[in-house]
Structures are given as C-alpha cells and as structure tokens.
Amino acid sequence: MKRVDGYLARYADVRAVDAAARVRGAFSAAVVIPARDETPAVLERCAPALAGRDALAIIVVNGDADDPVRVHEANAALLSALLAHGASTPLAPGLALVATAAATLLVVDCASASRWLPVGQGVGRARRIGCDIALALWRRGVVARRFLDTTDADATLPADYFDAGDHRAVAVTRSFTHVPSGDTAIDQATALYELTLRYYVAGLASAGSPWSMHTIGSCIAVDADAYATARGLPLRPAGEDFYLLAKVAKLGRVDRGAGAPVRIESRRSARVPFGTGPGAALIAETLEAGGVPAVYDPASFVALGRTLEAIGRWTATPGARLRIEGDDVLAAALTETGLVAGVERAAAQAKTPAQRLRKSMEWLDAFRTLKLIHALRSQGHTPVPWPRAVAALAGEVMDVVAANEALTRLEADAPDAGLYAQRVG
After folding, report:
1. How, if at all, do strands 56-62 and 253-256 pair?
2. Is the pLDDT of residue 269 over 80?
3. pTM, to two decimals
4. What CA–CA distance (Å, rounded) separates 395 from 406?
C-alpha cells in the first residue's frame, strides 16, 4: 500500500482525492468514463456491465476554455440528464452521486466554466481524475475490485466486463470491435482503422516484441499498485492510454482479457487530435479518392525481429559489443534512433544475462519500438497497401472483415505482453 498512499499524497489530482473522500458506500467495482460532447446514451452503453453488480460508474464530464459553444452546450445537457436520471445526492459543488435502477453514478463536473480543465490536457486529465478517484476509493475499501477499469462514452460494455483481470497481471487489455453506425463511408473507414491497430499488434507479436498489446482507452484496466507506481495517467489531449500501458507493461504481465468484446461505435469524431476519429477520417479521404489505405511495410517487423534476436544473443555475452545485422534500411534506422548506444548504456550496470535483457527491453520500450518502426519507414520501408501487408502476416484475405478476423486470431495465439518471467528474465 505504500506506493498507493505515496501516489495519492504526492501525485494524484487534488480534486479527485477530495471527491473520493466524500463518497460513502460499498461497491464491487468502478469504471471510469470521460465524457466530452456526448449524449445520455453513455448510460445505455455501460448498463450491461453495471446491472446487478453494485458497481459505480465514475463519469467525468469535461471541457476547456478552447471548446466551441456547441461542446459546452452538449456538456451542460449531459450533466443535467445524468443528474436527473435517478435520485441525486450532491456531495460538493460539481460532484454528485446518482442512484439509478441499474447502478450508481458518480457525476464529476469538469465542464462548467469554473471547473474547466486546463487547455491542452483534455482526455488525459479527465481520465486521470476518474482513475485517481477510483484508486482512492479502492484504498479506502469503498470499491472492492483492485483493477482501475476505464472506458469511453462511445463504448458498449459487455455483461462480463468486470470479470477480466488476473491478480498476477499489472493490466488487462480487453477484446474489442467497432460496430457499424449506418454511415457507410465512416463504417468502412473505421473498420480499416481497426485493421491498422490489429496489424501493428500482430506485427509486433511476429517480431517477438514484449509490447504487442492494444492501447485503447475504451478497453483497459490497470492494477491499482501498478497505476500508482507508474504515477498515473499523463496529462495529454490524446495518447494517454498508450503512455500509461507503456509504463505499467514494464512492471509485469499485461493480460489479453477473455470474454465478450467491448463494442465501440463507428462515428465521425474530432474529440482528440489523433486516434480513432482522426485516423478514420484520413482513411475515409483515401477511400473517397479511390485509393487503398497503406500500412507499415512487413519488412519493418522482420527488421525489428532481427534487432530483438541480436539483443537477446548479446545479453548472454557480457563484455561484447552489440552488433545487429541487417540491410541498409535497418542500419540507417538504428543510427537515426541511437538504438545500439541506448541499449548498451541501459544494460551497462546489469550483472546477469537476465538483468541485461530486462534493462535492454526497458529501454527499447513501446514508445522507442514505435520510433524504430517510424525510422524504418522514413529510411526506406515505405508503407504498402493493406491487403499485401496483411497477407504477409495472416495469409491472403478477401476483404477487411476477413482481415480483421484473421488478425484477431493471431492476437489470441500470441503471448501476453509486458516484461515478465515467461518473456524476459
């Protein structure tokens, strides 16, 4: 508990700690849902997971000074609808418990003008406030489940949502699927965006990377102690889910959660500067122009695999220099990223091969792995049309639906992610 107590005292959002101190009751679990420019449909989407569970939904309605009037109006309407959805008990200005027929809501107002989030922190700050509340409630025993579950307002949660999570894991990444909306153009684009996510994770797995995991805020749960050790979510307008999992995956195993998938709505969205909404929009533009969306060259994952194999051999030979064999593209990418020198520095003080390997992989983490893939792209591994790329990993496919199914099967067969005994050390 020391790390949790230290985090709550030094790093947690002050508003979150104060809010948690005001909540009374006993809940089996809690789920955090940031909501910006959303509708009351969020309640229908989370209802299957909450019903009959004595669970708490922490809904952080949020905005900032740069949001257009339309967003502020939508946020105000959502706050009113949430507070009117059941018996509402004010706990403090901007904080209320709402007892509904299915579950209890903790409504956190970060959308009114006096409570706006700092500009530029967006969903990262909102998700952190919610998760910090959940952590503090778990520490007090108000919430029993030690995993901090978080999702998004456009995600429909399955009935077995809270069943995911092994006490030996530091995090869980649940299965997911995007469901059609009826807008053909955006449905096709979103299915292809999902394919890019699955293709990247499958590519990492084929290379033997310990970071072959989805980092989607709609579908993650993090162990309370691991969350505190990683010092919570970064305050970013997007990508906060990636950076949180990238940190906690260094602490242990990241489970691929079993059970029904989280169903994410396909929709046009500009709520974050990058991610599903903007990514699908770019793909839609490509499709409208008659193009075929491209993804990373499969050769980049082959190069990553050679790099990881070379590091593995090198860690077993103390005193040797790290040498990575490959073509000119890999050599240039290694120079661009400073990988060899970085790995050698990271492992310099390690005393055993297992420690050297762990230190090497801690340095070549999820973020630096992505940088290496980008460097390989800039040095000559140019993107290729998705059907050809998927065929290199999963065999020939006829359409995007079959491709996503094939890549999903590869995910199911891959080891869990993270640095743990089975993979490293």
Report:
1. unpaired
2. no
3. 0.92
4. 8
